[in-house]
Amino acid sequence: MFRLDPAFLATSDVLASLALCEARLQLDARFPWIVLIPRLESVVELEDLTEEQGAMLLSEIGAASEAVRRIGAALGRPVEKLNVGQLGNITRQLHVHVVGRRPDDPCWPRPVWGQGVAEAYDPEALERAKAAARLALAA
Amino acid sequence: MFRLDPAFLATSDVLASLALCEARLQLDARFPWIVLIPRLESVVELEDLTEEQGAMLLSEIGAASEAVRRIGAALGRPVEKLNVGQLGNITRQLHVHVVGRRPDDPCWPRPVWGQGVAEAYDPEALERAKAAARLALAA
Questions:
Q1: Would you state the pLDDT for residue B19?
Q2: Which residues contact B104 (CB under 8 A, 6 or more apart)?
Q3: Is A111 in contact with B83 (Cβ distance < 8 A)?
């Protein structure tokens, strides 16, 4: 049975249930950042996916990319580059990060993972970010 | 016309021409690490790929994953986790990193990108790594 690793509950908020993945907003106001977690049991690596699941994941990475761009626009910080990563060194349950980057963000040009400390959203910006993402993901 | 960004020539060695991508060994003995560069002009993000190109890339990420595992085995450091990343903050030409990780590697559990300094392979290990990767990529 699929069960979301508790680590995701602590660090992200639900955005949408897509065909394959749970899409969640990473609670780090430094970057527009969506995490996709396929609703599959005991899956750790991309190579564990069937061809069909891989195609669905790729399509949902595309949707999350657009959503991340919309979050950036809604917060007045348009995304200039996307970073997509599947790491899982700490939380093994397969998940893919889709992060919007800008040359003026605090980690540029390094990756965001394991850099510095997450910054809390202020409540109004959080609602704006979630609304923008959900609208994009529903399209 | 497709032209490999010179940055790749300086930091990696050719392994194989796959159906979509050039597969290259990253010249950093700290990690078994393959870079895939689609032979496409002016492509920067995953969302720039057609559905068919995306499926090819995913299949080649699978092949590179297996090749990275074979490099790790050939060097006596079996891969315990794969890290796959598409960043491009510095070199914009679309490329995907497939990196084999171990809890005893010098960056664990952080990502490898932008961490520390690449370590040169000794010539014998380099040949062994390339041979193992080429055998896997030819399969």
A1: 98
A2: none
A3: no
What are the pLDDT digits (tens) for B54-92?
999 999 999 999 999 999 999 999 999 999 999 999 999
Alpha-carbon gap, residue B27 to B62, rounded angstroms = 21
Output the DSSP codes for B34-51: EEEEES-TT--SGGGS-H
ipTM score above 0.90: yes
Q: What is the rounded CA–CA span in Å between residue A109 and residue B32?
A: 23
Taking CA–CA distances from A44, the nearest residue in chain B reads: B81
Q: Min CA distance, A127 vs chain B (Å)?
A: 26
Cβ-contact A58, B58 below 8 angstroms: yes
**Which pTM was predicted?**
0.97
Residue of A nearest to B48 (CA): A62
A56, with CB counted inside 10 A (0-12, 13-18, 19+), is middle
Indicate the burial class of B101 (C-beta count within 10 angstroms; 0-12, 13-18, 19 or more): buried
List A8's β-bridge partners, or say none: none
Half-sphere exposure of B50 (CA within 13 A, CB side): 4
DSSP state of B119: -
Q: Which of A131, A125, A130, A101 is nearest to A113 (CA)?
A: A101
Provide the terminal-to-terminal Cα distance of chain A, rounded to the nearest Å: 28
Neighbouring-strand partners of residue B23? B16, B36
Window 37-66 of B, Cβ < 8 Å to A? 44-47, 51, 54-55, 58-59, 61-62, 65-66
Distance from CA of A71 to the nearest CA of B (A): 17
